[in-house]
Amino acid sequence: MTSAENNRHWEECMEFAVQTARRAGQVIREAVKLDKCVTTKSSAVDLVTETDQQVEELIISTLRDRYPSHRFIGEESSAAGERCFLTDSPTWIIDPIDGTCNFVHSFPMVAVSIGFAVKKELEFGVIYHCFEETLYTARKGHGAFCNGLRLQVSKEKDVSKALILTEIGAKRDPETLKIFLGNMEKLLKAHAHGIRVIGSATLALCQVATGAADAYYQFGLHCWDIAAAAVIIREAGGVVMDTSGGPLDLMSRRVIAAGTPEMADYIVQQLHSISYERDDHDTDCISTSC
């Protein structure tokens, strides 16, 4: 396909992703009212419900029927043992319910996240806040939007005037908790206005895109938590990078996002790293920077 044809095709893909995310969100809104069957994955706090699995199947089957030659990376299918890696093929990166613990407790910070990569480069992202029915979208080179209104990140450079968001990953051993709390302590001692944990990485990252938060960092999230949000933040004028200060590695399970490079660089200097196994650890294919 020509560049113009590709452009139209990716636009059509994003429009279909929006329809699919809204449909998935409706299923989640109905399911939250019902009794839930809750099991665990990597740890006692890494929760999964039958709704996670049903919604992922709905999203992937809907997209696969439309785009049979595309590849898919999904949170629940990866947890079930499917290989998690990027190739040059068009690839959908899906979190059916981001904020499963919130969903289990009916805490209304839950989202559907659908990212899309081509030749290992993120092309667009769609994030749907299921309970507020708020839709975040972005395509590379075309801007970021919330319910059709263009987004712009904060331009704050001074951490002492910043609101920072984070999440704790699934590891809760004493050493991990010590590092996690120590990182928060460093930023609070730098007089950050506050640090928030809302239980949904994708929605927290969207707050950076809207300018409501100045930065976000985390160790232990997955590629499906980052993919869609990274496009949205970048298209809103922000930066997304590795916690080392280098380019974002989608499979590394760590990220810093901020409205300004100065804010991101400052946070890089403060953080002590928490080690997590890469998303692509069991494959021969290692992703490039996105």
From TrEMBL:
Domain of life according to the entry: Eukaryota
Pfam family, one: Inositol_P
Catalyzed reactions: a myo-inositol phosphate + H2O = myo-inositol + phosphate
One GO MF term attached to the UniProt entry: metal ion binding
Residue positions binding Mg(2+): E75, D95, I97, D98, D225
Pathway noted in the entry: Polyol metabolism; myo-inositol biosynthesis; myo-inositol from D-glucose 6-phosphate: step 2/2
Documented EC number(s): 3.1.3.25
Enzyme class name: hydrolase
Gene3D superfamilies given in the database record: 3.40.190.80, Fructose-1,6-Bisphosphatase, subunit A, domain 1 (3.30.540.10)
Keywords: Hydrolase, Magnesium, Metal-binding
InterPro entries for this protein: IMPase (IPR033942), Inositol_monoP_metal-BS (IPR020583), Inositol_monoPase_Li-sen (IPR020552), Inositol_monophosphatase-like (IPR000760), Inositol_monophosphatase_CS (IPR020550)
Organism: Lepisosteus oculatus
Cofactor: Mg(2+)
Transmembrane segment boundaries: none
Protein name: Inositol-1-monophosphatase
Family from the record: Belongs to the inositol monophosphatase superfamily.
BP-aspect Gene Ontology terms: inositol biosynthetic process; inositol metabolic process; phosphatidylinositol phosphate biosynthetic process; signal transduction
